[in-house]
Amino acid sequence: MKNKILEHIKINKEKGKKLLSILLDPDKLSLDKIQSTIKKINQQKVDFIFVGGSDVKNGITDSFVKKIKEFTEIPVILFPGDFSQLTNNADAVLFLSLLSGRNPEFLIEQQIKSVPFLKESSIEIIPTGYLLIDGGVETSVQKVSETTPISQSSIDLIVDTAVAGEYLGKQIIYLEAGSGAKKIVGKRIIKAVSENLTIPLIVGGGIKTKEQLKQAYQYGADLVVIGTAFEENNNFLKNLE
Length: 241
Description:
CATH class: Alpha Beta
Oligomer: single chain
Distance between the termini: 32 Å
Shape: globular
Strand content: 15-25%
Helix content: 25-40%
Structural class: alpha/beta
Order of helices and strands: HEHEHEEHEHHEHEHEH
Number of helices: 9
Number of domains: 1
CATH superfamily: FMN-linked oxidoreductases
Largest sheet: 8 strands, parallel, barrel
Strand order of the largest sheet: 1-2-3-4-5-6-7-8
CATH architecture: Alpha-Beta Barrel
Radius of gyration: 16 Å
Number of strands: 8
CATH topology: TIM Barrel
């Protein structure tokens, strides 16, 4: 079914059912560790596996996703740092536009570069407005994109940027504090953005405890992404039960 992953996210939003994704970075997880990692993910209530990073080397993503698919039926969604990280082996791609920045390379240029591949691909394309929020540390996204994250105190600007993304036709808004963030996206931000959107809201970056996860859900996140916490401790998911 066309757009089945996006529809699944939307239907669960309407039902009030919260979703969880684990983010795996090909630069941080070697191929020989994938089987044991996926085994632990399969044992938990994980809805999606995101794959991507800000500085993944050419060609790695394809073999990385192919290996993941050997060991799980969980849908794999690309969270690419650039167009070179695309692969037909995934189920879908977050077609990201970095709305919080003003670098044309990540607003539209990377998207244009990806078109020849995506036109010939069968993977689901999910238009996504991506907002980088200050997490208290310079992240790899910030370095690679050469953009400044939005201050957590600028709630009106964050809301307006997210709503502009919806008006532009984005199907999902992603609030990201960045990998290894010292500060997660604040609850007031999540609540304000959620109340002003009609489309699903993803929140990620720095979430390392059950309380932080529950807070993100409570204040309006429809899907939460766990990355660094799982990288540092593959048993982290057990603490969420």
